[in-house]
Amino acid sequence: MFKLPEAWVWDFWTVDDGEQYHLFFLYASRALRDPHARHYRASVGHAVSSDLVSWERVTDALVRSDAPAFDDLATWTGSVVRHPDGRWFMFYTGSSLNSSGANVQSIGYAVSTDLFVWDKAPGPVLSADARWYEKYSDGHWHDEAFRDPWVFADPDGNGWHMLITARANHGDVVDRGVVGHAWSADLESWELREPLSSPGQGFGQLEVLQPFVVDGRQVLLFNCMVGDMPEAARADGVTGGVWIADAKSPLGPYDIAGAQVIDDPSLYVGKFVTERDSGDTKLLAFVHDRDGAFVGEITDPYAVSWDGDRLSLTPMELAATSSEALRPEALTLRE
Questions:
Q1: Which of 40, 61, 138, 233 could form a disulfide with 44 if both were Cys (CB 3.0 to 4.6 A apart)?
Q2: Glycosyl hydrolase family 32 N-terminal domain: from which residue to which, for each copy (predicted)?
């Protein structure tokens, strides 16, 4: 488990350089007292590990810029990929307050040759476009949601794609969550495109997206709290949290309306990680709350397997003992 005594830790992303796993995470001082205040004080920390369990904290990756800048309030969630020329690109969310005090999010990037020292590029490179996406000026949501860039190479070798947490500019105001989309030939210049999904599928926003293949099955992982879901989508005691939807490809179509939630409401921002030596799929998440109190720490990996149409997450220490004998203790996705 990765936790800091002096700070809350929450959203995170990982990358494997072939020798070490790198964990980039949002953190903010517990001296704020109110965990809700952490969002406006978030920096991007950095830790390394050889096994996804024991982590060594190293120098922070990013902090907010001096005003005026698109990231002068905070730096939020992102992803890291490697350019064919060997450079590492970190795409991240920049948060800033507009003239009316509203939180406006947009996307920038930083570049590194070693994953430790990062140089920000002038930004932002992408912002919400009213042709397809909701703007704060529409007056329907508490912020301008355009964040959490997840970047991956095109499966057919045609450049790069970015999935974005965004909201459509039409539909029921509490049901506008969509998978935003952008494309780039070189990771530096980006073309914003229309969403890859439609609103009206039960989510006000789809946070921290990640397409992944689990044992040959393409899925889309995303996150949504119950408070960001329309009332009709809260049937059968759904609590919100980490969700997984079936998908035809990394670019969709996605069965978002049929997504399943991990049956552990304490977890949020799940991330699939491929274990280097075994090739096995693991899942990490951060502990959001227990007994109504915010926790702010990142779990050890869970072993991941399909049980029919359900995904089982088994704590690693249990999986190592006997996955079959301990199957009733596994976390499962609610049907």
A1: 61
A2: 19-225
List C-alpha distances in Å: 260 to 157, 212, 243, 274: 31, 15, 5, 21
Which residues lie below 8 Å from residue 7, measured CB to CB, with a gap of 6+? 27, 28, 29, 30, 296
pTM over 0.85: yes
| DSSP-assigned letters across all residues of 131-196 | TTB--GGG-SSSSB-EEEEEEEE-TTSS-EEEEEEEEBSSS-TTS-EEEEEEEESSSSS-EEE--S
Model pLDDT for residues 76-89, shown as the tens digit of each residue: 999 999 999 999 99
What residue spans define the domains of the chain? Answer: 7-332
Q: How far apart are CA 30 and CA 50, in angstroms?
A: 28
Say how far apart CA 91 and CA 112 lie, in whole Å: 11
Amino acid 320: pLDDT? 54
Burial call 47-70: b when 16+ CB within 10 Å, e when fewer = bbeeebeebeeeebbbebbeeebb
pLDDT in tens, 25-78: 999 999 999 999 999 999 999 999 999 999 999 999 999 999 999 999 999 999
Buried b / exposed e over 141-152, threshold 16 CB at 10 Å, is bebbbbbbbbbb
* CA–CA gap between residue 30 and residue 246 (Å, rounded): 38
Q: Residue 226 CA to chain centroid, in angstroms?
A: 17
